[in-house]
């Protein structure tokens, strides 16, 4: 089969696999191969160049690569009027009256080179919605904001949805008046987002070595998340990159643990950006307003309880603990993420779109990290286990003890003991060993040994007290 059938379940996979296989043939041209391998999404290609000549060359190479596979790469769009004229002449694009183009769910205005959210469909749907869990869920699903431009606004309705799940309402049940009022206020603010737009480019003609990544994390009892910025070291220009937020778990966690979850998202974002922007060597700073979470991150993971230890271990793997810093809550842009805000406040928020004010200043003006004492009850230190082992130690039995059980008389006990003592002495000699009958002296020695043993057994406590010059207890 040499064609990709449409409508078959496996068609998307076959198409993607075919494109990947074809692109591998052009590994010799590293720049074109890297562009196509990393920037093709299904049947769309998203890429750019630092100059008109570079962009034109890349587009020409891409067309030639796909032409060899029998695919017609066309409908090119650009923010450059000169490049668009060249493409029209080459018949790879056409004149369009609409300046707004949809790219991966976002709207790109090619004239102003800005990005907007597609909210017209949501505005059309809102008047027909009923105040039920089903319709509130529809509003959440209708907002497509993969970059997290308006996360502080969206998190409000997500928290409302969580409240409805906790109340145990069915999808078509009427919601409580308090939730209804909050949702209607939120719907009324959606119209404000029509004026939202953001520059598509981060920086123009920037040098990777002059870039810094700054990620801010914050949490509240309702939500937690992180927001990232790119900062230019020389010009101190700061640009919003992306944000990520989550509703706090239904199972209640302490605020320090929630702060740690926010820090974990920050670490993942930092690692993702370094990989995505191919700036793995750039300086990366992570900021939090939680002294407790900062203390955990800078400490050894094995010191903490399992919940904290697992997350600290991942944070330390993804980021450098030495680059984690403390900032005050009022200077933390992620505070908007964790608490939510109105649409108008979000659009007018300088701290959200440009980061903390001191990011636009030299490094020596950044807040200093102050060591703070953490209360012992929330340090999450592992409990120290005390292991007690009871060992029964038997008192070693005297070698002559068994004689009293095996011999029928005192004389026999002494005689056997005498033979045992002679045997021991003969073992210590190499020559002149005694081989005659038992001597009287050997009997006397054996009798003394046995008497001493009997006395130690019968009067052990008294003998021990006498050895340390203590009086014997009287009964």
Automatic annotation (TrEMBL):
SUPFAM superfamilies in UniProt: DNA/RNA polymerases (SSF56672)
UniProt xrefs under InterPro entries: DNA/RNA_pol_sf, Retrotrans_Pao, Rev_trsase/Diguanyl_cyclase, RT_dom
Pfam short name (any one): Peptidase_A17
An example Gene Ontology biological process: DNA biosynthetic process
Limits of the Reverse transcriptase domain: 1-92
Domain of life: Eukaryota
Name this polypeptide is given: Reverse transcriptase domain-containing protein
Organism: Araneus ventricosus (Orbweaver spider)
